[in-house]
C-alpha cells in the first residue's frame, strides 16, 4: 500500500511580519488540502524566525513571534543564530516557555551544566498511520566565537552528525534534518551521510524552487523573510521512498485576505507603542546623525562604548546611526529606529604594532567604506560610512598613532572599545587575527547607548 507524507517548511522569517499573514494562510490551507488528498502532513521551521530589527520582537523579547508560530502548530523547529546569538542567555532560556512545538537541537550546550538546553530535545519521532517512523533532528550554525560569550558551546556539525547517526541507528525509517547550517554544509552532509532522506535548510537564504537531489537526500529551502514557502511530498511503500517532489510558492503571488493589512500594521504599531512608552532620558540638544560630517551622535556613541567596555579609546562607524534624535525626552522607539542593528559592544586588546596596523587599515579603506552598501553581520543600515575614533589619533606626516595623547609603543598592550561587527567583516583583519577580543553579548549597541543617555541625562 502506498503511503503519502508531506512536509511544509519555513526558514529565515526574520520577523518580517508583513509577509506573515500570507505565510500563515498558505500553511494552514495547504495542510488542509494535502490531508484531503490523503497526505499525512508535518510542518517545520528551521530558525531565524525571530529578529530584533522589528519593534514588536525587540519589545517582547521574541514572545510575540512565538505566539504567531503557535498558530501554525509546527511539528518541530530548530533555532538559528538570531535566536541563539541575539538573546542574552536568560532570555533564550525562556524564549520557548510558551511554545506549543518542540525545539530540536543537537549541537548546543550550556557551558555551566555541559548539557543541552532544557528548552530543547535531541529528536522527535512521529509514527505514521502505516507505522513509518519519521525522525527529526536539528543543527544550528556553530558560531563558537559568539556563543562562548553567552555561556553556550556550539559543536561542529562534522563531529556532531556521526554521533547523531550512531545514537539513532535503527530507530527511524525516514530521517529529517532541520538545518540552520547553510547550503554548503547541507550539501556536505548529503554527500557524506546518505542516511538523511530530507534536509530542510536555511541560514544562507538560498532558494531551491524544486528542491535539489544530492546523493540520497532531498534538499529544500525557501529563501528568506517569508518570500517563499516550501512543500516536499513523498510516496512510500513498505517505509521506502518510491516518489518525491519539492515545490515552493512565492508569497507575493498569493492573494491577500481581508484584515491582512490591519494585522500587519498592528504588529508594527504595538511594537512601536511599547518602545515609545519606555522613556530613557532627557537630552539638552539634538543628537545629529551625519554620514560624512562630524556629528555629536558619534561622540555619544563612542563614549557609550568606552563605558560599556571599560576602555579609554574606541571606534565606531557613522553608518551605524540611521536617524537623528531630537532634543527633549528620548524613548526606546527613537533609539531602536536609530540603531536597529543586532550588534554588540566589544573590547579588543592588542599590541601597539597591531593598533598601528588597525589605524592603517581604516585609512586605507576609508574612501571605499564611506559609500560601501554594507549588508549582514548584524548590520541593519545602508552604508558603512566613516570610522570615528575617540582616544586614538593618527599623524599622517609622521605615521605615528597616539593612544590617549601618547605615541603607541609597538610592544605595549592597548585596549580599544568597538563593535563585534568590525571583527566579523573582512576590512579590518588585524582585529580577529591579532586582537584578544571580548564581546559583551548581554546588551546590543542600542541598549548601551540608551543606558549611557540615562546615566548622563536622566529624566527630570
TrEMBL record:
**Gene3D superfamilies in the record, alphabetically?**
3.60.21.10, 5'-Nucleotidase, C-terminal domain
Q: Does the keyword Nucleotide-binding apply?
A: yes
Give the signal peptide as a residue range, or say none if absent: none
Q: Which domain of life is it from?
A: Bacteria
Of the GO CC terms on this record, one is:
outer membrane-bounded periplasmic space
Membrane-traversing stretches: none
Return the InterPro entries for the record: 5'-Nucleotdase_C_sf (IPR036907), 5_nucleotidase/apyrase (IPR006179), Calcineurin-like_PHP (IPR004843), Metallo-depent_PP-like (IPR029052), Pesterase_YunD (IPR011240)
Family matches, as Pfam families: Metallophos (PF00149)
One MF term in GO for this entry?
5'-nucleotidase activity
Keyword Membrane tagged = no
UniProtKB keywords: Hydrolase, Nucleotide-binding
Set out the biological process GO terms recorded for this chain's protein.
nucleotide catabolic process
Instruction: Give the Calcineurin-like phosphoesterase domain ranges.
Output: 7-206
| Family affiliation | Belongs to the 5'-nucleotidase family.
What name appears for this protein in its UniProt entry? Bifunctional metallophosphatase/5'-nucleotidase
Q: Which organism is it from?
A: Acetilactobacillus jinshanensis
Lineage, uppermost ranks: Bacteria, Bacillati, Bacillota, Bacilli, Lactobacillales
Amino acid at each position: 500500500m502506498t503511503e503519502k507524507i508531506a512536509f511544509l517548511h519555513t526558514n529565515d522569517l526574520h520577523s518580517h511580519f508583513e509577509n506573515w499573514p500570507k505565510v500563515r494562510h498558505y500553511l494552514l490551507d495547504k495542510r488542509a488540502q494535502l490531508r484531503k488528498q490523503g497526505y499525512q502532513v508535518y510542518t517545520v521551521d528551521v530558525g531565524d524566525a525571530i529578529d530584533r530589527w522589528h519593534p514588536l520582537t525587540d519589545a517582547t523579547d521574541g514572545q510575540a513571534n512565538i505566539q504567531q508560530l503557535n498558530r501554525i502548530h509546527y511539528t518541530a523547529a530548530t533555532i538559528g543564530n538570531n535566536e541563539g546569538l541575539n538573546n542574552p542567555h536568560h532570555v533564550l532560556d525562556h524564549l520557548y516557555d510558551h511554545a506549543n512545538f518542540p525545539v530540536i537541537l543537537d549541537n548546543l550546550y550550556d557551558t555551566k551544566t555541559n548539557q543541552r538546553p532544557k528548552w530543547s530535545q535531541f529528536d522527535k519521532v512521529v509514527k505514521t498511520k502505516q507505522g513509518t517512523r519519521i525522525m527529526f533532528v536539528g543543527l544550528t550554525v556553530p558560531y563558537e566565537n559568539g556563543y562562548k560569550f553567552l555561556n553556550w558551546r556550539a559543536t561542529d556539525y562534522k563531529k556532531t552528525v556521526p554521533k547523531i547517526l550512531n545514537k539513532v541507528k535503527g530507530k527511524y525509517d525516514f530521517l529529517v534534518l532541520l538545518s540552520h547550517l547553510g547550503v554548503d554544509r547541507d550539501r556536505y552532509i548529503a554527500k557524506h551521510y546518505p542516511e538523511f532522506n530530507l534536509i530542510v535548510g536555511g541560514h544562507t537564504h538560498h532558494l531551491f524552487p524544486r528542491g535539489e537531489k544530492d546523493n540520497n537526500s532531498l534538499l529544500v529551502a525557501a529563501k528568506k523573510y517569508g518570500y517563499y514557502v516550501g512543500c516536499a511530498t513523498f510516496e512510500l511503500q513498505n517505509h521506502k521512498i518510491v516518489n518525491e517532489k519539492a515545490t515552493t510558492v512565492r508569497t507575493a503571488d498569493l492573494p491577500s485576505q481581508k484584515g491582512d493589512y490591519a494585522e500587519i500594521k498592528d504588529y508594527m504599531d504595538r511594537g512601536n507603542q511599547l518602545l515609545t512608552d519606555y522613556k530613557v532620558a532627557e537630552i539638552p540638544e539634538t543628537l545629529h546623525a551625519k554620514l560624512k560630517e562630524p556629528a555629536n551622535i558619534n561622540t555619544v556613541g563612542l563614549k557609550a562604548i568606552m563605558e560599556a567596555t571599560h576602555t579609554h579609546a574606541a571606534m565606531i562607524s557613522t553608518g551605524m546611526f540611521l536617524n537623528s534624535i531630537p532634543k527633549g525626552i528620548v524613548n526606546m522607539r527613537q533609539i531602536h529606529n536609530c540603531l536597529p542593528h543586532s550588534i554588540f559592544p566589544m573590547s579588543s586588546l592588542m599590541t601597539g604594532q597591531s593598533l598601528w596596523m588597525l589605524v592603517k587599515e581604516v585609512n586605507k579603506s576609508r574612501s571605499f567604506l564611506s559609500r560601501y552598501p554594507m549588508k549582514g553581520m548584524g548590520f541593519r543600515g545602508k552604508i558603512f560610512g566613516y570610522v570615528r575614533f575617540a582616544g586614538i589619533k593618527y599623524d599622517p606626516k609622521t605615521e605615528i598613532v597616539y593612544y590617549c595623547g601618547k605615541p603607541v609603543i609597538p610592544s605595549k598592550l592597548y585596549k580599544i572599545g568597538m563593535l563585534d561587527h568590525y571583527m566579523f567583516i573582512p576590512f579590518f583583519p588585524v582585529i580577529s587575527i591579532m586582537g584578544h577580543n571580548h564581546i559583551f553579548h548581554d546588551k546590543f549597541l542600542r541598549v548601551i547607548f540608551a543606558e549611557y543617555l540615562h546615566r548622563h541625562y536622566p529624566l527630570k
